[in-house]
Amino acid sequence: MIRSELKARGKAAFKANYWKSVLVAILLTIAVGGWNAGSSSNSVDFQELTDPQPAQSYSVNPEDYAPFPSEDFDETDIDQDFSFLFGDDETAPSESAPVSQRLKESINVGSIAGLGTLSFLLTLFLFGPLEVSGRNFFKKNLGEKAELDELNRGFVPKYWNNMITMALKNLFVALGFICFIIPGIIVSYGMELVPYILADNPGMGIMDVIRASWNMMKGHKWELFVLDLSFIGWILLEILTLGILGLFYVNPYIFSTHAAFYEAVKAQYDPTPDVEIATPTEA
């Protein structure tokens, strides 16, 4: 399997159907991890929202404070001088201040929990089938100009099968990374072909799809890893352009090349007796 040929095929395919490939690549980027990246990069400190006043500097003149109280000593002077420790109020904090702080913390925790729940639900019910659809588009686009109707593949006719299979695939990958980084990477590459197999075989059993991807990737994990490393230069340019190059070139280029990789692996695959990759079937 020659990397240059895979990349050339992928580049030619997405350029021939450029704008549709860009659109699908944006959706696919969101499906495979855009949500998590966005939620982590756009987190906001709740304290900044509730107390947006700019920071102020304070200085203390030693001459203003005698070492011993004088006859002119007034306790309210100290309260006023050190009021900045407790915010803009002119008096010391009341007993309700700790309750307010706990309320802020509770709202902050609730917001994080809500975002986490929403992320989980989107990943479970939407992003998994959407990844199947996006991978199917780029796979179809290798042979001819694919239409946006190919995005239906992850939802019709076997939505629940696709959703559960992708959820199980993501669970296995997560468990791999819990063990350690290297096992996580190995499991991730072993499950790489799951969405393509689902797109080609919508009626295939859940565990059959998982096993088929693992068997097909035997001897090819390192090849795909090196193929991904070959895009490092493009990814650096994407970072320098603040992601613009990724949207309009790098991401569709990579997704199309991955589809070419799947087609090459499938052509070389000798299925085991108990797991067979069927020919693509129409919905």
Topology:
Elements: H1 3-16, H2 18-41, H3 46-50, H4 75-81, H5 97-141, H6 159-179, H7 181-190, H8 194-200, H9 206-216, H10 221-229, H11 232-240, H12 244-268
Describe the structure.
By secondary structure, this protein is an all-alpha fold. It has a domain at 3-36 and 105-268. Helices cover 66% and strands 0% of the residues. The chain has 12 helices and no strands. It has helices at residues 3-16, 18-41, 46-50, 75-81, 97-141, 159-179, 181-190, 194-200, 206-216, 221-229, 232-240, 244-268.
Oligomer designation: single chain
Radius of gyration in whole Å, from Cα?
28 Å
Given the structure, what is the number of helices?
12
Strand content: under 5%
Instruction: Give the SSE string.
Output: HHHHHHHHHHHH
The pLDDT mean sits at: 79
Q: Could you give the count of β-strands?
A: 0
Question: How does the helix and strand content classify structurally?
Answer: mainly alpha
Helix content: 55-70%
**What is the makeup of the main sheet?**
none
Inertia-based shape: globular
Which regions contain 5 or more consecutive residues with pLDDT less than 50?
34-55, 89-94
End-to-end Cα distance: 31 Å
Task: Report a brief summary of the structure.
Helix content is 66%, strand content 0%.
Features:
mainly alpha, 283 residues, single chain
